[in-house]
Structure formats: structure tokens, C-alpha cells
Write a structure and sequence with these properties.
Blueprint lengths: L7 E5 L4 H11 L3 E7 L13 E2 L2 E2 H6 L4 E5 L4 H12 L3 E4 L5 H5 L3 H4 L7 E4 L16 H8 L1
Parallel strand pairs: 1-2, 1-6, 2-5, 6-7
Antiparallel strand pairs: 3-4
């Protein structure tokens, strides 16, 4: 028996910070369901760096032990499917740009409604107090803004 057996995490995140964090939770026994964009690409991390079989090794490392589903969260049916998944979860982790979950209609007021035990976590690359908090962030943008 692992410490997080019986805990379900829905992860709507890409690149490295949130996926790596949830991979550690998966190692501890949590069931992690990764929600990827249904755009034929999914998590862009899949294609960055050294690859084996067309998939980057860092993607494998950050997404080990997870289940995966592709949803088009730009369409109402995809958002509704994501909400149904969130309703079954103990934890919802996302790293959309600031304000995106509210625009999608799944902000904390909706995601947490009626779910006593749900924890919602948002990973932000540049934080909320920078000049452009809605900007997409990568390692390059960290380096550029810290110079």
C-alpha cells in the first residue's frame, strides 16, 4: 500500500513543472489522469529533446504512470467532459495561462462547488504579479525576464 493509494488527480497541464509534480504523486500511488489537447499534438513536451520512437525522454519521465485522455477544451463538450473528470477527482492540477480556467467556466468557484475534498492547484511560470501575467512562459522567457 502506497501513501496516495485511492487519491485521484486530474492534470490539465503540459511542459514540465506540473507534469513532473504529478508524476511524483503517481509514484506515491495516486491515480493521475492527464488531460491533453485534442489537437493532434497534445503536450508539446512530447517532441522536445532526445527522442525514442518519436517521443522525448523527458516526456516519458514527467508522465510515467499516468492515464491520458485528449479533450478539446476550446469546445463546450470538451469543457463539460473535463468538468465531469474533475467531479471524480480529489485534486485538480492545471497550468493554463492565468484567467483561462475562468474563461472556460471551470475556475475555482465552479471546480470546487459541491466537492468537499477537491484541492485545486495552478502552476505559473512567471507568477501573477509580473507586467504580463497572461503571457505563456518557458525557460527562455524566464531567462529573458531575469536579465
Amino acid at each position: 500500500m502506497l501513501p496516495l493509494d485511492g487519491i485521484r488527480i486530474v492534470e490539465a497541464a503540459q511542459m514540465i513543472s506540473a507534469p513532473f509534480a504529478t508524476s511524483i504523486l503517481s509514484d506515491q500511488g495516486a491515480e493521475v489522469i492527464k488531460v491533453e489537447a485534442a489537437n493532434g499534438v497534445g503536450d508539446r513536451m512530447r517532441f522536445l529533446g532526445d527522442q525514442r520512437g518519436g517521443i522525448a525522454s523527458i516526456f516519458h519521465a514527467a508522465n510515467r504512470g499516468k492515464k491520458s485522455v485528449a479533450l478539446n477544451t476550446k469546445e463546450p463538450a470538451g469543457v463539460e467532459a473535463l468538468l465531469r473528470l474533475i467531479d471524480t477527482a480529489d485534486v485538480f492540477v492545471q497550468n493554463f495561462r492565468p484567467g483561462a480556467v475562468e474563461r472556460m467556466g471551470i475556475g475555482p468557484d465552479v471546480a470546487l462547488a459541491g466537492i468537499r475534498a477537491l484541492s485545486m492547484s495552478a502552476f505559473r511560470g512567471l507568477g501573477r504579479r509580473v507586467r504580463t501575467p497572461t503571457r505563456w512562459s518557458t525557460t527562455l522567457s524566464f531567462r529573458a525576464t531575469s536579465a
